[in-house]
Each structure stands twice: as structure tokens, then as C-alpha cells.
TrEMBL record:
InterPro entries: UPF0047_YjbQ-like, YjbQ-like_sf. This is Secondary thiamine-phosphate synthase enzyme. It holds the Pfam family YjbQ. NCBIfam families: TIGR00149_YjbQ (TIGR00149). Belongs to the UPF0047 family.
Length: 139
């Protein structure tokens, strides 16, 4: 089976957000697969996807605090400033974390580790709706 669909995520505040359930809910086809792969491509350049801690929200907080320390806004050498002071740092963060994930499917479910979840990194103060292209294949 091959299937592809676009998943729209509601706007979120700047930070890291656990979206595993939203991805699962949007893909009932997962249940049809014994083995396969799910590829997720975030269709934006100022947000990211990553796989990390799914239990303690302090990890998402600390990741955001670390990122803001390493990639602050309003740096005097940034040229790309027409879209706001948060835009260029958002592009840098998206490149650091990446905009895609490929995840295994086993027994009709995503085969994630016990403490793993899919995160959306929203790197803009007002990023708006985010879209993910999901491509699922397997048997």
C-alpha cells in the first residue's frame, strides 16, 4: 500500500509541541499495515519536526530555552529581516532540527520507543497553521 495525505496542524505558540496523537489520528491507514514506513515532511521553512521525549513537558521547555540562547533574534548581522525579528532565527532552527522524519510502522502502529514522541518545533512567534505531507507505505 502507498498513500499520501496532507495533515494540517492548528497554530501554536513558539516552542516545542508533542503532536504524535494528531499524526496517529490523521492516519487510520496505519492499522492496515504489519510492516511499513511513514515519512513526514513539514511544508514550512520556519518550523521543524523531531523525535524526542514524550512524557515530561520540561524537556520541551528546556529545549526551547536552549535554542533561544543559541539562536537569539535581532542579531545585527542578519539581513533577512523583512518578515520580522523571529523569522531568520526560525529558519536556522528549522535547518538545525530538520523538517522531515521517517518512522517505522509495526503491527498497525508507529514503532516508537517507550519515551519517544513526535514534536513540532514552532520557531515563529505567530507561525500559523502548519502542514505536513505524510507518505505511508507498507504491507
Amino acid at each position: 500500500m502507498w498513500t499520501q495525505l496532507q495533515i494540517s496542524l492548528k497554530p501554536r505558540e513558539r516552542g516545542f509541541h508533542l503532536i504524535t496523537r494528531e499524526i496517529d489520528d490523521a492516519l487510520p491507514q496505519l492499522a492496515e499495515l504489519d510492516v511499513g514506513l511513514l515519512h513526514l515532511q513539514l511544508l514550512h521553512t520556519s518550523a521543524s519536526l523531531t523525535l524526542n521525549e514524550n512524557a515530561d513537558p520540561d524537556v520541551r521547555h528546556d529545549m526551547q530555552a536552549f535554542l533561544r540562547d543559541r539562536v537569539p533574534g535581532n542579531l545585527p548581522y542578519f539581513r533577512h529581516t523583512q518578515e520580522g525579528a523571529d523569522d531568520m532565527p526560525a529558519h536556522i532552527a528549522a535547518s538545525l532540527f530538520g523538517t522531515q522524519l521517517t518512522l517505522p510502522v509495526r503491527g498497525g502502529r508507529l514503532a516508537l520507543g517507550t519515551w519517544q514522541g513526535i514534536w513540532l518545533g514552532e520557531h515563529r512567534d505567530h507561525g500559523g497553521t502548519r502542514n505536513i505531507l505524510a507518505t505511508l507505505n507498507g504491507e
